[in-house]
Amino acid sequence: MMRPAWFASVALCLLAACTLREVRQPPARRIFGRLPDGRPVEEFTLTNPHGIEVRAITYGGIITVIRTPDRSGNLADIVFGFDSLQGYLEHSPYFGAIVGRFANRIAQGQFTLDGVTYHLARNNGPNSLHGGLRGFDKVLWTAEPLHSDSGAGVAFHYRSPDGEEGYPGNVDVRVTYTLATRDELVVDYTATTDKPTPINLSQHTYWNLHGDGKGDILDHVLTLDASAYTPVDSTLIPTGEIAAVAGTPFDFRLPTAVGARIERANQQLRFGKGYDHNWVLDRPAGGLVRAARLVDSTSGRTLEINTTEPGIQFYSGNFLDGTITGKRGGVYGHRAALCLETQHFPDSPNHPNFPSTILGPGDTYHTRTVFAFGVLP
Ligand code: GLA
Q: Atom of ligand 1 at shortest distance to CA of 341?
């Protein structure tokens, strides 16, 4: 008489054990390539029970592949990158990389902290971009697999020595990618320092939800949960103003196609050659809030981004011009992909009215950004 119940509980336990085993399945690990000095670059592959796949390498902490299903269940790769290490070493515009120590720009490559002026490489016109000549996107990180109740992941670690790229302090950075069973990629950033220093870490993935680099992103429908943005000068340095988006092509509070207003006669769009600006997120609460939602009605794929950060850089791939050939021989044309970089505001060390980016000894920097993958009903 007890049999059916007994069978049911055994079956349930087996199912639970299988699910756990699936969740806890370690990421696959292989050598992706070798740096010119011979050091190996490893690649980690994370998969979840719905077939979503995320690959990341120890060079730059670069996310090389994200495969998600379209509305018919067909998997395709929705991020830009290269098939081999060579492409990343030679000419990558930060495809998939962790950017730091300071994501985005610092005006004239300099800032003053506690009375000392620090000088950084000017690698973007007169300004410093994404941490300088050899930022976190171009260094070799160490990595280890990670297991949590929510899914499997990989933890990257890099120790940036005092003075690296002109920045003060020895900084220990840890970035983890966890692919959750509920179809989310969770990115956690932590950092500590032994001297006060600016820190602003972000992820520079280029998205094209059509998959496999097809078409462009002008038909992607974007929502940004931001009532304001930080206008820039002609070198893309914020003027310091926090401007309302209402009545401008920068108002994405309601879902709007990326291409709907991108060619409008507008000084800010001219400076950015399209969208290349920081939006000031509405923060009804602390912690994780929604920053962006991206929808491709052709494939049915959706991407939602939640973050603890105060800002997001929306870059509409304006500098892509067909000169880069990426994965599977794909030619990456103008605005063929876009970036949504959660971050503190650009050039914060030179703008006392922006949220502070200075990390002090004894403090721990921690931010989280969650990328949720879905399909339209
Ligand atoms: C960032 C910048 C852009 C551009 C890209 C890389 O997103 O804001 O202006 O430099 O990186 O091409």
A: 7
For residue 350, give the 3-state DSSP assignment. Answer: helix
Give the integer Cα–Cα distance in Å for 215 and 368.
31
What is the CA(275)–ligand 1 centre distance, in A? 10
106-115 pLDDT tens trace = 999 999 999 9
Catalytic residues: 204, 341
pTM, 2 dp:
0.93
pLDDT of residue 25: 66
Pocket of ligand 1 (CB under 6 A): 93-94, 129, 236, 276, 313, 315, 319, 339
How high is the pLDDT of residue 26?
76
Say if residue 101 is preceded by a cis peptide, omega within 30 of 0. yes
Ligand 1: centre distance to CA 168 (Å): 24
Ligand 1 center to 104 CA (angstroms): 7
Give the count of beta carbons closer than 10 Å to the beta carbon of residue 297.
14
Average pLDDT for 128-156: 96
DSSP 204-260: EPEE-TTSTT-S-STT-EEEE-EEEEE-B-TTS-B-S--EE-TTSTT--SS-EEGGG
